[in-house]
């Protein structure tokens, strides 16, 4: 495993260059695995699909695998009515067989566990074994649709928030008030400001961190929690995002 590769959430997919990176990686993977060369029509259709998903689906998510400043893999999808759909998972050919795809899938599943009860996807032929290895089952014989039930909610984990759910908003507003801070959910949802929450052993939100467009970070933690430990976890994740070009 290449330990220099970081898996980072992409809070604003419409930021310059993000979709171009997605398509560059997808094209390289399709050429390598299927000997299929994407043409201009393919690129335009794929980019339009990404834009439409971004505009029309409230709970979008994406994670990029980064080797230094270069994106070398990604996973992207959305959550609707309690179901998470993975729209795409691709890795550059030279990074295949280095567990990058598994790490991307794990981060997507971690996020999905916060907002849904199951994950769905349509698998390309040569990726079916990969998904089956990670617990996904076919919807029917010969079907390329796969699903996986999520059996646990996050606990003792730092999870990115691409758009806060009502439950997250209520929890963070309460924590923020105890810290003398007004939590602004609109800045997270409308401006795509980076945000992480920390779940305790009971899957309750006990702290959060947010960053504005200047890179200034604020961390708030609920009373009677291990402040230093949670603060360090939230700050570490956020600093990686602030330093990244895909925040």
Q: Can you describe this structure in just a few lines?
A:
The chain is α+β, with helices and mostly antiparallel strands and about 250 residues long.
Please provide a written account of the structure.
The protein is α+β, with helices and mostly antiparallel strands and 247 residues long. It has helices at 18-34, 40-56, 100-115, 128-133, 166-178, 185-191, 227-243, and strands at residues 5-9, 59-67, 70-80, 83-91, 118-122, 137-138, 145-149, 157-160, 195-199, 205-211, 217-221. It is globular, with a radius of gyration of 18 Å.
The Cα radius of gyration reads: 18 Å
Instruction: Determine the mean pLDDT.
Output: 92
- Total E-strand runs: 11
Helix content: 25-40%
What is the 3D shape?
Answer: globular
Low-confidence stretches: none
Helical element count? 7
- Give the biggest sheet: 7 strands, mixed
- End-to-end Cα distance: 25 Å
Biggest sheet strand line-up: 1-2-3-4-5-7-6
Binned strand content: 25-35%
Q: Strand pairing plus helix content: what structural class?
A: alpha+beta
SSE succession:
EHHEEEHEHEEEHHEEEH
| Oligomeric state | single chain
